[in-house]
Design goal:
This protein has 6 helices and 3 strands, in the order βββαααααα. By secondary structure, the protein is mostly helical. Strands 1-3-2 form a 3-stranded antiparallel beta sheet. Helix 2 packs antiparallel against helix 5. The two termini are about 35 Å apart.
Length: about 190
């Protein structure tokens, strides 16, 4: 993975090209320069944080080889593990209701991302699976709020988890909006 340093920057620095006609066409034209990329995870509402990374066009195009390389997948796995650990302290009478539901929905977020990756040949299938993943993260947010209502978790824990699941939702929405750049279609 590339080294990354986080900074709070104005939005007028470097930008990645947004259209295919701006991309270089041959390998000897691949520059290495700094680009400003918005960071979605772990932000509060209204905050914008940028990272400056040194990367070439060729690395941008080849960075993600499997679904395991996706930051949204990594974050969803991390959150599912946290949910599992947190629910160990829930009352035993919740084992077949809230515990099983929140564990299932939190694990399903990553599973749906993996399925979406496998269906990249068809944009609509890819988008459908990412939409399912987004629905699962929203369901997990519901169960987190329900656990808070029953005082099974602290408000700090709930806020932290919900903010991070909202980040997952934003990343999924971005992937859906840019689904054609993820999909390998044969026309």
């Amino acid at each position: 993975m590339l080294p990354v340093t986080s900074y709070q920057l104005p939005t007028t620095n470097y930008q990645l090209p947004t259209t295919n006609n701006q991309l270089p066409t041959t390998n000897n034209q691949l520059p290495t320069t700094n680009y400003q990329l918005p960071v979605i995870s772990h932000l509060r509402r209204g905050e914008t944080k940028y990272q400056i990374i040194n990367i070439s066009y060729s690395k941008i195009m080849t960075f993600v080889k499997t679904f395991r390389d996706l930051e949204v997948y990594k974050l969803s796995r991390e959150l599912a593990k946290e949910i599992f650990e947190i629910t160990k302290s829930f009352p035993k009478e919740e084992i077949y209701s809230m515990i099983s539901q929140i564990r299932r929905s939190s694990r399903s977020v990553g599973a749906q991302i993996a399925e979406a990756w496998g269906k990249r040949r068809y944009i609509k299938h890819f988008e459908s699976k990412l939409t399912d993943s987004d629905a699962e993260q929203l369901e997990t947010q519901h169960w987190i709020e329900t656990a808070l209502d029953h005082n099974y978790i602290s408000s700090e824990t709930a806020v932290n988890l919900i903010e991070r699941y909202e980040s997952v939702g934003k990343m999924l929405a971005s992937m859906i909006a840019k689904s054609s750049s993820f999909c390998k279609t044969n026309k």
